[in-house]
Amino acid sequence: MDTARPPLPYNDLLAQQRSRAPALARSSVDERKERLERIATYLGNDDHRQRLVRALSSDLGKPAVESLLSEVGAVHGHIKYITQHLQRWMEPRRVATPLSMVGTVNYIYYEPKGCVLILSPWNYPFNLAVVPLLYAMAAGCPVVLKPSEASPATTDYLKRMVEELYDPHEVTVVEGEADTAAALTRLPFDHIFFTGSPAVGKKVMAAAAENLSSVTLELGGKSPCVVAPDVDIQKSARNVAWGKFFNAGQTCTAPDYLLVHESIAADYLRALTEALHDYYGPDPRASDSLARIVNRRQHDHLSGLLAEALTDGATTAAGGQHDAADRYFAPTILTRVTPAMRIMREEIFGPILPVLTYRTPEEALAVIHGLPKPLAFYLQANDRNFIRRFLAETSAGGTMVNEFFLSQGNPALPFGGVNNSGIGKSFGYHGWVGFCNERSVLERKFFDLSVVYPPYTDRVRRLVERLHRWL
């Protein structure tokens, strides 16, 4: 009986891209830069840029300012950084030669891993699709890009842009639901780059393991923000409110909960509430500065978390209103929250901010250590000893002190999680080399080891013993 698996969907697509991979691997620095700059030119066209802003508004109700900052601007920034540094990255890197290998030259040669699959999410549907695409193309890899089905307008924009700019043997956008993504992950891609939840990330990793495909997993988790007693309360609260409620809290690095020192908690809550009023007005639903929830499913997830927390004893210090028909969810601040509540065990991914208090650093650290390692860790503090202690006694993909988001705007800093919040890094050199094989090369220039070739006579043995002691 023939027990062979039937051909998987998209086998032909992968075969076509694999046939183009050798040519892309041989492409020059200038050729790779030109491919990236096509996207910059495309976005430089006002009609194209405004069409993207409208697509993001359709999918997420994103304010134009947020779209230009976090989607268009971010992509431009990475294109500029890559084109400035790509020549140096692509050059073989010499490494030290030990004395025992005198006569050889040793270096690292960077070659593309090969065919890449990128699975991108819906919360920043242009940025998080295009940025890994840029680094994969800069590494010389052909790419299959599968955007999220939850952001259809932006997916349509991506597909149209890619079809206008690239040969499908180099870059192809594949549309579809979760079953499409699952079928793609079963194919023998050389590398898979996934952005999404830890639960789905585990499935991607399991599928990749069947083909021993390497992976980069940009996941999420419950990112804490610890507020020290020495902060400028007004300034800190406004910073936190912006960092949390940007894109209606639908950001993998948004602070998922707040730990505020009890000595300033009451004043801090008042300042947070005032910040929300200043940002979104007395009726946030009427504000054109607040994004919407992506779909009914995500709205129901958020409303369920909120309802359960209130039933379990939490109270709303601000917000709480929501409307599934309009995908509206008011910026919400919860107090009287305990670590045992479900809202403190699951990633929220929306505009709900639980606020807990602590008396000592040990109490705050106990809450943080009770959860998996987060993608981001935030400190609002001025005391250097306080900052150093929390850096030393926690683990996270990245940390920001007295700020939000800006580290994601610096391509020189690696971006990614640790364990449950992610595997591998992106951005800058770290993002580029993630799509490369660091190939070790040793070249013999002079001398050789013929003095220790067989037969292993007493003379050879004595020579090896002397060399061993000397080296």
TrEMBL record:
UniProt KW NAD keyword? yes
Q: Which SUPFAM superfamilies match?
A: ALDH-like
Its taxonomic path starts at: Bacteria, Pseudomonadati, Bacteroidota, Saprospiria, Saprospirales
Indicate the family of this protein.
Belongs to the aldehyde dehydrogenase family.
Which InterPro entries does the entry link to? Ald_DH/histidinol_DH, Ald_DH_C, Ald_DH_CS_CYS, Ald_DH_CS_GLU, Ald_DH_N, Aldehyde_DH_dom, Aldehyde_DH_NAD(P)
Secretion signal span: none
Task: Please give the biological process terms from Gene Ontology that the record holds.
Answer: aldehyde metabolic process
One GO molecular-function entry: aldehyde dehydrogenase (NAD+) activity
Aldehyde dehydrogenase domain segment(s) = 18-441
What protein is this chain from?
A: Aldehyde dehydrogenase
- Keyword S-adenosyl-L-methionine in the entry? The reply is no
Instruction: Provide GO CC annotations from the record.
Output: cytoplasm
| A Pfam family the protein falls into | Aldedh
Active-site residues per Swiss-Prot or TrEMBL entry: 218, 252
Q: Which UniProt keywords apply?
A: NAD, Oxidoreductase
